[in-house]
Write a structure and sequence with these properties.
Blueprint (H helix, E strand, L loop, with lengths): L1 E5 L6 H10 L3 E6 L2 H9 L10 H8 L6 E6 L6 H11 L3 E4 L6 H4 L3 H25 L4 E7 L16 E4 L8 E4 L7 H20 L2 E7 L1 E3 L25 H10 L4 E4 L5 E6 H13 L9 E5 L2 E4 H12 L3 E4 L16 H5 L9 H13 L17 H9 L12
Parallel strand pairs: 1-2, 1-4, 2-3, 4-5, 5-8, 8-12, 9-11, 10-14
Antiparallel strand pairs: 6-7, 11-13
């Protein structure tokens, strides 16, 4: 199979590219390397040392039967370059990771809000246009997020994309997209992506799979662990670092774990190896042209933030500190999702178990000399009310802060 991986230098894109190459596929990575530039902007480099992309590609080509190429293209700004790459490579499938992926980063300022919308929405539309123009038979696999649904109690498991409804006073039922409730500019762009996908699947019969992914934990896959040049990035800062990564780095530094808010927020999680496996399964099971968008929930379990903190606190013997929450979100929530789709296709989920967190903790400890303590906390407020709460501060409290 010939596969273009957009954003293939990123946290999920790089191990996906390597797995496809190892399985014998021909892969073209397209990336503008903006994630590396943002790391410089935030003074928050990956905890793991990342080599230049040319070295990564060279090492990737030593992996297996497939081949991996690279094109430097900003797909949101250079449509001619993107279209030409599609026309030359003629992919069987396109995997789309090329969006600004961090909710806190999207809320940092008006500049970051506009950048996230301009980049994410335009990039997705350019990809769809290029497929229609150059390779209409190609299957598009897009990495979305469970965050499009917000984090509140829905009263039932969130289905895989569609909700059956019966209009009031009617005798027939229909299915609509499950209502979105984005909690950040980033999540809003993913909600807008869904509408673009619906249109192009209907109007141009583009084959599309939209994967609504949970928070990714873990770092390595079999391929990234095989050579230091292939190591995956590890973000731990308050913008791009997941809550689990931040906790593990704080534990490695013998710091108190910083819980923002009550800790009652529940999130969906998936291991990076399962992310890669789900992409493989999605590529192997495309919807037919003319079918509606196939939406799959790409998550394997749910946990509350405080439960994660308690688990890691016990592993590392460190304290837990509660801070004001910069996000405008519910103090606590329950989250239940339908997650049978990939299991039915053969996924055997990796669960977030103590021994596996020990592995990530050991890696964090190995590179702790590279940690910049000042970037760990989440400090970007979602709105003026949250900014005022952060300014008041609750550093050092040992009990969850009361809601506003």
């Amino acid at each position: 199979m010939r596969v273009i991986v957009l954003g293939g230098d990123g946290f999920c894109g790089w191990p996906t590219s390597l797995r496809l190459v190892a399985e014998g596929h021909e892969v073209l990575v397209i990336d503008n390397l903006v994630r590396r530039a943002i790391a410089d902007e935030l003074s928050a480099p990956s905890l793991t040392p990342i080599v230049p992309v040319s070295e990564r590609i060279q090492a990737g080509n030593e992996l297996g039967a497939g081949q991996i190429g690279f094109r430097y293209i900003d797909i949101a700004c250079d449509y001619p370059g993107l279209s030409a790459a599609f026309a030359e490579f003629l992919p069987d499938a396109v995997v789309h990771f090329a969006e600004q992926r961090a909710a806190p980063y999207s809320m940092r300022s008006h500049t970051h809000r506009r950048y996230t919308v301009d980049n994410n929405v335009t990039a997705t539309h350019n990809v769809l246009s290029a497929i229609v123009q150059e390779c209409p038979e190609a299957h598009l696999v897009h990495l979305g997020t469970m965050g499009v649904y917000g984090y509140k109690d829905h009263g039932a498991p969130i289905p895989e994309g569609y909700l059956e409804v019966i209009p009031r006073g009617s005798e027939f039922s229909t299915e609509i997209l499950f209502p979105t409730d984005p909690g950040s500019i980033y999540h809003m762009t993913k909600s807008l992506d869904q509408l673009l996908f619906q249109f192009y699947a209907k109007n141009d019969s583009v084959s599309i799979t939209d994967l609504h992914q949970g928070i990714v934990w873990g770092i390595e896959t079999e391929e990234t662990a095989s050579d230091p040049r292939l190591v995956n990035r590890f973000d731990y800062d308050g913008d791009f670092g997941t809550v689990l990564n931040r906790f593990l780095v704080e534990a490695a530094m013998n710091m108190a774990l910083t819980v923002h808010g009550s800790g009652g927020q529940t999130r969906a999680f998936i291991h990076i190896q399962d992310t890669v496996r789900c992409i493989e399964l999605a590529l192997a099971n495309p919807p037919k042209r003319g079918d509606r968008v196939r939406i799959r929930n790409q998550a394997t379990e749910t946990h509350s933030v405080i439960d994660l903190a308690r688990t890691i606190s016990e592993i590392a013997n460190v304290d837990i500190t509660f801070l004001e929450n910069p996000r405008a979100e519910a103090v606590s929530n329950h989250l239940s999702i339908e997650e049978s789709s990939f299991v039915n296709l053969g996924l055997q989920p990796i669960r977030l178990k103590d021994e596996l967190m020990h592995d990530v903790h050991r890696l964090a400890t190995t590179y702790k000399d590279r940690v910049r303590r000042e970037v760990i906390l989440c400090t970007t407020p979602w709105n003026a009310k949250r900014a005022a709460a952060i300014k008041r501060g609750r550093l050092g409290t040992l009990e969850p802060p009361t809601p506003d």
